[in-house]
Amino acid sequence: MLIVGAGHGGAQAALALRQAKFAGSIAIVGDEPEPPYERPPLSKDYLAGDKPFERILIRPAGFWGERDVALLLGRRVTAIDPEARRVTTADGATIGYGRLIWAGGGAPRRLSCAGGDLAGVHAIRTRADVDRLIAELPATRRVVVVGGGYIGLEAAAVLTKSGKQVTLVEALDRVLARVAGPALSRFYEEEHRRHGVDLRLSAAVAGIEGADGRATGVRLADGAVLPAEMVIVGIGIVPAVAPLLAAGAAGGDGVTVDDHCRTSLPDIFAVGDCAAHANRFADGAVIRLESVQNANDQATTAARFIAGQPQPYDAIPWFWSNQYDLRLQTVGLSGGHDAAVLRGDPATRAFSLVYLKEGRVIALDCVNATRDYVQGRALILGRVHPDPAALADAQVPLKSLV
User: Sorting pLDDT into bands at 50, 70 and 90, what band is 88?
Assistant: First the structure.
């Protein structure tokens, strides 16, 4: 078994193979020098300095050798030959495989405007990204964050708490627009403003200003310039699937996989952020899910198939985000909802939003409301059509509505 990618999906694929009693050789090829580590803390605890790197390792460094999993680190796969069953790395070396699991994830989407490559412009995707960012913080007073998704908001929260002057720029008319309803967006906008973040909505970036090769500010489409010693760009990822597509795999925005995570190429599987799959929680639409849950569950699906224990992928999506003292837990996919019911009072900073489609619960956003998050899963899985009045009453346990 050859696994390309040493993130959550790649690590879980190796773990699941051994748990399923797979006795063959396993190697993980990763383009970073570190053993597999958790990505979510990069924009939270690791950036804040609350967790050292050793505490975000998925397993202790020695674990992989004990499980007879070879780590081939600091190597990037640039080509696949499905007929010869081998991959080529950037240094020209080749590695053969019997079966291949591609868990390559993606690369941060870069700004296409002038100045996007200046020093001081950062992404948050790898440990090295965040280490470079942290090294520049002592000389940084003003930060512009481009992008109002999870990464941008989490970084803004951490840097604001550390005393930096933060401006967040979002091209759409609200934050979290791609993943949540307007009510949750407005709540988080107010929270960030209350903590001192300068939010600029419906604001397009025209370019990065610079001097002596270093960023000095962000120029908006309306001509305004936001001074900054640091710019953090969080505008999504580009799925890392070029070698697969070049080898003939079906796909486009990601590589297409079936419900066992098989690509169209023989004995090649794909999991995680880069895998485009039909998802029943999105009414059967083909989507990519950028989450630890999806990476782990798809990796387990592929491993079980390879080990002769096939079980189709059918996991309910879930996500989380920590900002200030707010823990957001999301279950299900709210895209396409036609109604949203509020449970609790946002002023208390503990509430839930329940999303409905034609009266059926399809997702929940739970802010400091773990009980709703846990109990709400059954409403989604059971395709429940609850009474709206009971749903809105925070004193009524969600489990009683199943």
Answer: very high
Going by pLDDT thresholds of 50, 70 and 90, the confidence category of residue 43 is very high
Crossing angle between the packed helical segments 292-306 and 8-19, to the nearest 10 degrees: 40
CB 156 within 8 A of CB 198: no
Do 95 and 29 meet the contact criterion of CB atoms below 8 Å apart? Answer: yes
> What pTM was computed for the model?
0.94
The answer to whether the beta carbons of residues 249 and 264 sit under 8 Å apart is yes
CA distance 360 to 391: 12
Distances in Å between the alpha carbon of 300 and those of 49, 260, 362?
Answer: 32, 10, 24
